Every structure is written in structure tokens, then in C-alpha cells.
Amino acid sequence: MEFEAVIGLEIHAELSTKSKIFCSCTTEFGGEVNTHCCPVCLGLPGALPVLNKAVVDYAIKAGLALNCKINKETYMARKNYFYPDAPKNYQITQHETPLCSDGFVEIETEEGLKRIGIQRIHIEEDAGKAIHEGEHSLIDFNRSGVPLIEIVTKPDMRSPKEARLFFEKLRSILLYAGVSDCKMQEGSLRCDVNVSVRPKGSNEFGVKTEIKNMNSFKALEKALEYEIKRQINAIKNGEKIIQETRRWDESKGQTIAMRSKEEAHDYRYFPEPDMVYLKVDDEWIERIKATMPELPDEKKRRYINDYGLPEYDANIITSSKELAEFFEDAVLNGANPKTVSNWIMGEVLRTLNDKDMEITDVKFTSRQLVKLIELVEKGTISNTIAKKVFAEMFETGKDPEKIVEEKGLVQITDENAIREIVNKVLDENPQSVADFKNGKTKAVGFIIGQVMKASKGKANPQIVNKLVEEELKKR
């Protein structure tokens, strides 16, 4: 029997507001423990919450970016639970009336474009952070009251790869929209996964498990791969799948049970009595729409239509806001868009992947890349030398002209000097000359390669090709 996975994600994104959701405390990451808090975010008796309007602005913006309907009248609710990092013993969130609903994100799969539904986006406050030290647990309330949006998808994903593609695309959209810094290493973007398996072709859902706090794309994909196999093997062995919460253990490469969820939690939601209904009118929505930036899909279409980039290149470059900005800065500095794209898709991304770095980590600027391209186009250096110069730029951040000057890398264009190298190579490789005369055209490529090697890559390739042909015919 063949099985398929049914996957849905619940994503928490911290919003990039300067102050918290219900008070004026800073949302800045870090800081000495328990210094970014006040009576409101500590839940002290008598302290009353006041909703930060910027939080609603950012949430509406996220909803519009994710093609959601903005609900005009909503209210905040209390989600009651007792845990050390929840100072009030409840969380102020939204329950029956989310601010945004019925959206979607389109991802590129091997089978083509696939639409993943967004069920809801609601605003809520974050909890504090538990710090475990030996037998003791301490609480830092700096994060308590930091504004979040929770994005809940429909169970539309069918593989770990689709889940990863969706999560990557969602992060990209939130970054483009400017609503969250999405720093997964700082916990400002986190993901819980609901996954079940069922016989292929079935419409019934299987028993789902939840995997908590995925904080990287790689962890999400690996955890799902393991959990799907675990559930399929259990069913094949006649075992019962238990509805439970699990966590991903990176060192063991497996999901581990945390607690059973056979009986759903009763959080006793009820409307937050200290806050009025939130009413969003058309004028408010239109004002947010007017601030919407160009999003990844729009930018991709523009790169294809205006710059003539292949769809694949445009897709990769626009997948990262910072990479797209680097590309556009280079084009604005006068470089040919396709040439810049070739460099980004080639040397830039290859080096970043090899060194496990982001485009924001590079020491050189887009203007310096343009200078390197200009050196090639003017014939000052060859493409081969340009790659060596690029490697030096990546390590040092130096200007390409300075590197070329310091290392004496200017391209040789003197025909007499190149002819001398060609004849020396031909003299040293009589067998290749004989092969050429016997109709083996591959010999030409070998000779050209030896000439370029002898000139340390500095000989002009066009002149080398011409002179090799001329000198071979003379022999």
C-alpha cells in the first residue's frame, strides 16, 4: 500500500515594531535579563494593556502580502494556561476572529506551480523565555509581550520538500514586506508542524502528530522525513499512531515524544475584557496597501520581462530580498543585467554556498562587482583571471583594479608575445600537431589550453584561438 503525507504548518513571526504589543517596552533582541519589561508585560495586578497600532498595521501588511481577506471587526481573547513563562497565566491572542483569513502562497514544485492555503493570521503576544540551568529553571521576561503573528496554513503540503519550499517562500515574503526580520537564530521566526499519513487516494485524515519549534529549513525537512517514515512503518507493523507533541533531536536525527495530545487542551478562550473590539475600515486597509513594496513574485516577473532573465535565474535571485537588492544595485550602476545575473548565479552563489554565508556577509559591494565586469568587457583581464580576482575580492573586499595591479594580472594582447608562447607550446607537443594534421580537431583545444596555462591565463583567448590556428596551418 502506498502512503502520502498531509502537512500543515503553524508559523510564529515576531513583528518588527519598536515597542511591545500592549506597552511601550522595547522589542530589541538581547539586553540584560528582565530589563525590557514593565508592570504590563510582567502581568502585575492593575496593569492594563493598550494595543499598539503599529502591530495591527504590520499584521494587515502581512495579510495583504499573503493574499488574505482582512476581517473588519475582530476582538482579542484570553487563552488560559499555566506555565512559568506566562506571567498573567493567560496569553492575549485572537481566537474566533483572526485579523486575516483565507489567503495563499504559490510555490514552484517539480510538478509546476502549487497553491498552499493560508487559513488564518492572528496577532498575539509572545511569552517569556525559560532558561534551564542544571536543576533550576530561570525566566527572562524581556521577550514577554513582544508582538507576534501566527500564520496557520491549510493541510495542503504533501512532502517535506513542499513544506520547506513553502517556509522559505513565506520567509522571503515577510522580509520583502518588511514586517519581520525573520532571524530564525534569534527565534523571531519559528515553526510548528502538524503531520499525518494516509493511504494514497484517501480523503480521510490520519492521526496527526505535532513537531514543535523548528528553527531552520533543514531541520524542518529532516524532521518531516523522519516522522513520515516512522508513522508509515508503525501503520505497516499494525501499531496505533498516537496524537502527541514531539520534538526534533538534531544529534539523534529523530523526533522524540514530549507529551500526549489524545485529549485536546481546553484553553477556556473568552473575549479579553480589558480591550475593546478592533475595527478596521477600508480607509485603513487602503493606507496599508499604498505602502506595500514590490513582492518576490512581482519582482520575478519584472526581471523576466524587463531584463530578459531566464525564469530560473529570476526565481533564485528574487528568493532573497538582499540578493535582489545586490543585483539591482549592480544594474543601476550600469552593468548588463544578464551579465550580473551570470556572475550571481555562478561565482557569487557558488562561493556563498561553499562558505555557508549569506550575501549580507560579503566584503565587497555590488559596485565593485560592476568594476570587475567592466575590466573583462574592456579586455583588461580575461574571464579566467576575473574568477581569480573575484576570489581575492571575496576574501579581502579590495577593489578589482587594485588586485589586478598588485598581482600583475593585466591581459596580454600583444600578438607577437602570444605567438611566441604558441610556437613554444607547439614545439613541446609534436604529437598534438600530428594529431591535428590527421584530422583530430580535439588537439586544437588541448593546445589552446596549454597556451593559456603557459601565459598563466593572461593571454587574450580570442587572439590565442586565431594564432593557434594560423601557426598549425604553417606546419
Quickly describe the structure.
The protein has 15 helices and 16 strands. It has helices spanning 53-65, 160-177, 217-236, 282-289, 296-307, 311-318, 321-332, 337-355, 366-377, 383-396, 400-407, 415-428, 430-437, 442-454, 461-474; strands at 3-14, 69-70, 73-74, 77-80, 90-93, 100-109, 112-125, 129-133, 136-140, 147-153, 189-199, 209-214, 244-249, 254-260, 270-271, 278-279. The strands form four sheets. It has a nine-stranded mixed sheet.
Describe the protein in words.
It is a single chain. By secondary structure, the chain is of the alpha+beta class. The chain folds into three domains: 3-287, no CATH class; 296-407, no CATH class; 415-474, Arc Repressor Mutant, subunit A, CATH 1.10.10. Helix content is 41%, strand content 21%. The strands form four sheets. A nine-stranded mixed β-sheet has the order 2-6-7-10-1-11-12-13-14. Strands 5-4-15 form a three-stranded antiparallel β-sheet, with no helix packed on it. It has a two-stranded antiparallel sheet with strand order 3-16. Strand 13 (244-249) and strand 14 (254-260) form a beta hairpin. Helix 14 packs across helix 15 (461-474). It is elongated and about 95 Å long. It starts with a strand and ends with a helix. The mean pLDDT is 93. It is an enzyme of class 6 (ligase). One of its GO terms (biological process) is translation. It catalyses: L-glutamyl-tRNA(Gln) + L-glutamine + ATP + H2O = L-glutaminyl-tRNA(Gln) + L-glutamate + ADP + phosphate + H(+); L-aspartyl-tRNA(Asn) + L-glutamine + ATP + H2O = L-asparaginyl-tRNA(Asn) + L-glutamate + ADP + phosphate + 2 H(+). GO terms for molecular function: asparaginyl-tRNA synthase (glutamine-hydrolyzing) activity; ATP binding; glutaminyl-tRNA synthase (glutamine-hydrolyzing) activity; transferase activity.
